[in-house]
Amino acid sequence: MAVSETAAIPTTDTRDHIPALDGLRGLAVLLVLFNHAQVEIVLRMTAPADRAWVDQLTLKIWSAWWSGVDLFFVLSGFLITRILLQAKSGPGYFRTFYARRALRIFPLYYLFLVFLMALTHWRDATYLNTYGGLFRHQVWFWSYLSNYPLALSRVFDIQGFPATHLWTLAIEEQFYLVWPLIVLVLGRRNLMAACVAVAALALGLRIIATLDISEGWAVGLSPYYLTPMKLDTLAIGALIACLATEPRAWRIARKCAPAIGLIALAWLVVLGVKHQGLPPQPTDVSTFGFSALALLFGSVVVLIIGLGPDHAGARLLSGP
Predict the structure, then answer these.
(1) Are 301 and 21 in contact (CB under 8 A)?
(2) DSSP structure string for 242-304
(3) DSSP class per residue in 99-127
(4) Of 32, 159, 244, 319, which has the most beta carbons under 10 Å away?
(5) CA-to-CA distance for 231 and 301, rounded, in angstroms?
């Protein structure tokens, strides 16, 4: 059923699926994969001074593709909150949610860790010396907290071995642990206010973490990996799920989404020109730049949902 100007997206029908968001999630995954492939490609290219202008431009654009992770978080915030809102009035709220999450994630995740531990242990001494940090810090991985030692990489020697990418799943699991209770306790309007407050808090924490403090907890933190500082992406997605439950709010969201997206995109372009690309490390990128990404991707999600299943763009994203 196409979404009209006044209709909200139903949150009471668990069969109501939005296939176009599956395509958008696939694009987010591809961005991350291509971003990791960039390292190998750059190593094989000529020196920077000898590169053609098209290669230099490509690498500058490519430097922003890490943001696929942020797009994935926005989608996750929307989809998880929508599932919780659907289940809120039914029986077995917590049991159903956590059982489904566990069955989808735990078996493959822990099987991968077991395989990786065994592989690291059985390889030669050189390999063990390189990736031995996995054994020393394995408790962080078994408990879905691996993003914290990665953020404090000056303290923990976990950079470089093949499990650091699990930090994104760690953030997801920490979000799953707390968010269902918040959704259950708060009404729709209070939940929307909580989403806005969480997004503002995440920005504030990132600003504090990037201050040049000689002594204090902020020294050495990377805002890119810590859950409290990435919550604005999840909160924006959750806010969209709340807006989608009420026709008037959803109509306003659809009208405002293009303007919000363009403003956020303009700020990101300014940052891209300033830094000759969009790496996540600069302070202005890791603070207001991250917020702009969350707003941009949130606007994209709203616009794609608003297309309706019969629109050419939605059909393209829905195709196998």
Answers:
(1) yes
(2) HHTTSHHHHHHHHHHHHHHHHHHHHHHHHHHHHHTS--S-SHHIIIIIHHHHHHHHHHHHHHH
(3) HHHHHHHHHHHHHHHHHHHHHHHHS-HHH
(4) 244
(5) 17
Distance CA 23, CA 316 (A): 8
d(CA 263, CA 292): 8
Owner of token pair 């306790």: 185
Q: What is the C-alpha to C-alpha distance for residues 11 and 82, in angstroms, rounded to an integer?
A: 6
Length of the chain: 320
Question: Which tokens go with 213?
Answer: 């403090």
Say if CB 250 and CB 244 are below 8 A apart. yes
Q: Which tens digit of pLDDT belongs to each residue from 229-257?
A: 999 999 999 999 999 998 999 999 999 99
Nearest CA to 302 out of 235, 251, 232 is that of: 251
CA atoms of 281 and 47, how far apart (whole Å): 23
Q: What is the pLDDT of residues 108-163, one digit of tens each?
A: 999 998 888 777 666 555 555 556 667 777 888 899 998 888 777 655 555 555 67
